[in-house]
Amino acid sequence: MLNGGPEKIEKIDAAAIKELIKAEGIDLVGIADAQNLILAHPARPATALMPTAKSVVVMAVAHSLGSVYSPDIMLWTRSKMQTSRLLDETAEKVGRMLEREGFLTLPISADKPVEIFKHDPETGKKFRQTRTVGFLSFKHAAMSCGMGEIGKNNLLLTPEFGPHQRLCAIITEAELEPDESQDFDLCKGCNKCVDACPSGALTSDGYDVDPCFVYWSLGFKQLPPARFWQWPGYLRMIRQHMKKRDFLVESGQTYITDVDFCIECMRACPVGERWKDIRPKTLPFQKNTATE
Ligand code: B12
Ligand code: SF4
Ligand code: SF4
Questions:
Q1: 165 is in which domain, residue-wise?
Q2: pLDDT digits (tens, 9 = 90+) for 144-162
């Protein structure tokens, strides 16, 4: 254990690092070659954050399935925060230990901050909806080390937990033996995630980040108007929300607990071996502050 345990480990190699991390309570650990990561769009290579990076250690902590199946998303959000905390604390501890051993190491948080783009960096044109991107794509890093695949719900599916895990990563100069990427066949193409998506972000054609962002962050089912004639409908929607919601009180709570409005694409997915015996038979309705 890192906490109260040895400050050093005998040997810095992949097996020892994995054992140390698992002893902290992390469910899955994989190691990817930092110079050879599968990249997303826009690309965020680990070497842009640390040119001398050799390895990316990817960690996953399973969500509480009870919170996934809870009747109010706020209960899941609180539980999610704890998974992030465990991941971030472990990343910090491992990072410090590796730096004591002489390897420059950068933990990347499971949570915010993220880069925020009002304009498309390629064309300079203003996006209809502001976009955000992580400093490193954890889903792609996890695929690089054979932890799982990206399903139709645009989330990382692992054989163990399906989409129900939180991810985090550590970039380091330590040269650790990488795990190979693997082909899985986890996504059954059942479309349960597409049918469950309340914003229309997931369709059989793929994932559209803008409607997802607006619903996930505010509970709005409409994007900001792109045309003049769309304004009356948009304002009507805002008025309806204002009638029953208190945005000031909500924002206070959001700052403290990072309240989400949606995990439907995650909840609906049946993949995940480890949940076999405890998964409830029916998925109950889960409300959020904006639910009518
Ligand atoms: C930013 C972000 C979001 C944003 C944007 C999502 C997105 N796909 O880009 C919003 C707020 C919408 C979001 C929503 C969700 N997220 Co999120 N999110 C992240 C974060 C911080 C970075 C994602 C990222 O950069 N991905 C890389 C890009 C490149 O991924 P992509 O999906 O292939 O590509 C999209 C973007 O690039 C965007 N895009 C396209 N062109 C451009 C151009 C520019 C300039 C920009 C900025 C973006 C952009 O559109 C692409 C899809 O078409 C990650 C943590 C991390 N650091 O990885 C968590 C993460 C991906 N999210 C996660 C989760 C769980 C969710 C939600 C379920 C919400 C929730 N309540 O938690 C939904 C799921 C939506 C979905 N089905 O994909 C988990 C996924 C775990 C898993 N099992 O896979 C992660 C890994 C967090 C974590 N620590 O575990 N998320
Ligand atoms: S988080 Fe909600 S809105 Fe976004 S893709 Fe998943 S189901 Fe759709
Ligand atoms: S719900 Fe079905 S289609 Fe969607 S990711 Fe899971 S297995 Fe694939």
A1: 14-275
A2: 999 999 999 999 999 999 9
161 lines ligand 1 (CB under 6 A): no
3-state SS class at 73? helix
Is residue 136 within 8 A of residue 169, CB to CB? The reply is: yes
Per the domain annotation, does 4 fall within a domain?
no
Q: How far is CA 202 from CA 128, 188, 197, 211, in A?
A: 18, 16, 6, 9
Q: Model pTM?
A: 0.96
Would residue 155 count as lying in a domain? yes
How many whole angstroms from 208 Cα to the centroid of ligand 1? 11
Domain count, the chain: 1
Q: What is the pLDDT of residues 202-261, one digit of tens each?
A: 999 999 999 999 999 999 999 999 999 999 999 999 999 999 999 999 988 888 888 899
- Please report whether residue 286 resides in a domain: no
Q: Which of 83, 139, 203 to mutate to test the pocket of ligand 1 (most atoms within 8 A of CB)?
A: 139
By CB atoms closer than 10 A (0-12, 13-18, 19+), residue 141 is buried
Contact 202, 193 (CB under 8 A): yes
Ligand of minimum distance to the alpha carbon of 215: 2
Among 209, 220, 261, name the best residue to mutate to test ligand 1's pocket (greatest count of ligand atoms within 8 A of Cβ).
209
